Amino acid sequence: MKIPGVEKWRVGVFDDDRRTLVSIANGRFTGSNFKYYRFKKDPITAKHFHDFAELFCVVEGRAMFLLVQVDNPEMSEVIEIIEGDVLLLPKRVAHIVRAQENTLIFAIAEREFISRKVSCHTFDFSGYEHLIRGY
Q: Which pLDDT does position 43 carry in this prediction?
């Protein structure tokens, strides 16, 4: 079942003889914590949610996101994002990320990241993880 507020789109590419400009959000999202991840050895990571929204953009590679709406756990979905895709997760959407080795993801969080203890809330994905096994 599709989770309200989850959005996926392609980056905007503007090309001329001077440069190629890649636009990730263009007014669709405002963030204060910018980071990137280079994934090693086909990991499964995250297994948490936040009280703020996050945006992810695949620069290289591909990743699978397992999403569960924390306030309505019957609402879950699996979304694959590939190079050039952008994924917006609203607050309180628990996520597991399974990325292929060497995948590079640029991420923006709506609020600053203070610490794992303060900014991340664990979520029990029992009964959901099989949805991304074998990816």
A: 76
